[in-house]
């Protein structure tokens, strides 16, 4: 895996992929390619709700301290080993004698990333992979373990605690390798329609219905030939 990753990860930081893209990629590879390769983006009600939810969390100038816990918003992170860069919605730094020092602050702290999402917790790991990738960036930058984090869902107003297991980290590494390979080829995967397509903001650009129509056409043609 290490040799495979080294072969696809760019050395130039300007070629790093957007960290948040791993959520798009895990949800739908075609959606990720349309956004990150073809630069296609369409606002709808769901994306607008997501933007509103992130307004406060993305205020870089808003710093807080609650009961000894430091709260940083839109914290810029990157990983040379993953070739990713981006920003964490919120990182809470909890006092911990085994943690890391923070410039201008006394004591040591353990980082705890929190990602804000519209809707509610999902069966798929797409949101967890993004949060785990953020934790892996923090680990690499701060040289300290980041064992857990949380996903805050706007619909339920609750947090889902996520443990960053080795299996979840390995899933991040596999996804990142594929992302870099596809991005280098500038290849947009074909449509794989599913019920979730109806709620995707890129449904008009993706046109999954055409893929179904083509499938029916191929089916009829093959039977007529028989």
Describe the structure.
Strands 1, 2, 3, 4, 5, 6 and 7 form a 7-stranded mixed β-sheet that branches. The chain has helices at about 1-10, 20-25, 30-35, 45-55, 125-140, 165-185, 205, 210-225, and strands at about 15-20, 65, 70-80, 85-100, 110-115, 150-155, 160-165. It is an alpha/beta fold and about 230 residues long. The model is unreliable at about 45-50 and about 210-220 (pLDDT under 50). The protein has 8 helices and 7 strands, in the order αβαααββββαββααα. The longest helix is centred in the last third of the chain and has 20 residues, at about 165-185. Helix 2 runs antiparallel to helix 3 (about 30-35).
Sequence-ordered SSE layout with sheet pairings:
Elements: H1 2-8, E1 17-18, H2 21-27, H3 29-36, H4 45-54, E2 64-66, E3 69-79, E4 84-101, E5 108-117, H5 126-142, E6 148-153, E7 158-163, H6 166-185, H7 203-206, H8 208-225
Helix pairs in contact: 2-3, 2-5, 5-6
């Amino acid at each position: 895996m290490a040799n495979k990753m080294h072969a696809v990860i760019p050395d130039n930081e300007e070629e790093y992929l957007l960290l948040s893209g791993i959520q798009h990629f895990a949800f739908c590879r075609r959606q990720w390619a349309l956004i990150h390769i073809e630069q296609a983006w369409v606002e709808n009600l769901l994306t607008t709700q997501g933007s509103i939810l992130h307004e406060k969390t993305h205020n870089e100038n808003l710093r807080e301290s609650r009961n000894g816990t430091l709260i940083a918003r839109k914290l810029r992170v990157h990983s040379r080993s993953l070739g990713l860069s981006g920003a964490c919605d919120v990182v809470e730094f909890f006092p911990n004698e085994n943690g890391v020092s923070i410039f201008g602050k006394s004591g040591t702290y353990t980082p705890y990333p929190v990602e804000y999402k519209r809707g509610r917790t999902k069966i798929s790991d797409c949101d967890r992979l993004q949060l785990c990738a953020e934790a892996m960036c923090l680990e690499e930058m701060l040289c300290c373990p980041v064992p857990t984090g949380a996903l805050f869902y706007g619909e339920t107003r609750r947090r889902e605690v996520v443990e960053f297991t080795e299996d979840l980290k390995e899933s991040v590494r596999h996804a990142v390798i594929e992302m870099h390979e596809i991005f280098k080829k500038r290849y947009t995967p074909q449509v794989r329609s599913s019920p979730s397509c109806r709620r995707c903001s890129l449904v008009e650009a993706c046109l999954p219905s055409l893929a179904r129509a083509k499938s029916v056409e191929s089916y009829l043609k093959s039977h007529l030939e028989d």
